[in-house]
Amino acid sequence: ETGVTQxxxxxxxxxxxxxxxxxxxxxxxxTVSWYQQALGQGPQFxxxxxxxxxxxxxxxxxxxxxxxxxxxxxxxxVNALELDxxxxxxxxxxxxxxxxxxxxxxGPGTRLTVL
Amino acid sequence: AQSVTQLDSQVPVFEEAPVELRCNYSSSVxxxxxxxxxxxxxxxxxxxxxxxxxxxVESINGFEAEFNKSQTSxxxxxxxxxxxDTAEYFCAVMRSSASKIxxxxxxxxxxxx
Lengths: 115, 113
Description:
The structure holds two protein chains of two kinds.
Chain A: E1 5-7, E2 10-13, E3 19-24, E4 31-37, E5 44-50, E6 53-57, E7 64-68, E8 74-78, E9 87-94, E10 105-106, E11 110-114
Parallel strand pairs in A: 2-11
Antiparallel strand pairs in A: 1-3, 3-8, 4-5, 4-9, 5-6, 7-8, 9-10, 9-11
Chain B: E1 3-6, E2 10-14, E3 19-21, E4 23-26, E5 31-38, E6 44-50, E7 56-58, E8 64-68, E9 73-78, E10 87-95, E11 102-103, E12 107-112
Parallel strand pairs in B: 2-12
Antiparallel strand pairs in B: 1-4, 3-9, 5-6, 5-10, 7-8, 8-9, 10-11, 10-12
């Protein structure tokens, strides 16, 4: 059973550019969540997808958008990058929408640096 | 709204000494509580969780946490730490009917030989 994988590992962009980060869910998981972890802070919830539909969103502007595909893999897109977008972006998958069993399993993250 | 406070940003301890990492939460509704661990240059790993039932929960590597509803706390403890426990520890809360996990700011546990 493979765990949650993310690509790329590291990425450097400049202000104003756009970026796409990718995540493959753990086998059998149909829900994926994205988090932003700034240096020295805890992760902050960006949004969650369940069966290709957005299922909750945190306090992030619309330039943060996402997709979930039929195989439950996911993308996070960020437009018009700002310096403050520099962070570790974490993807987490969970096996079901049932909150009682909703343990989220995290990938290793993508480190984004915006210059 | 829920929030999580981790009272210590850093906790240095000697190897084989006991440790307690403190976590308090605020919520007006029932919640689930988690401790995640993040080793250097890695993602988050679930250490243990409280959903319901027994207020004392344990992990496979000797950590335990106790849910205290009256004090709204979920402190993490280990009676004897090892060098390999060096990591950042995050306390987190999730409303039982919501999508997102809310994390604390983390506690860096450093073990001295």
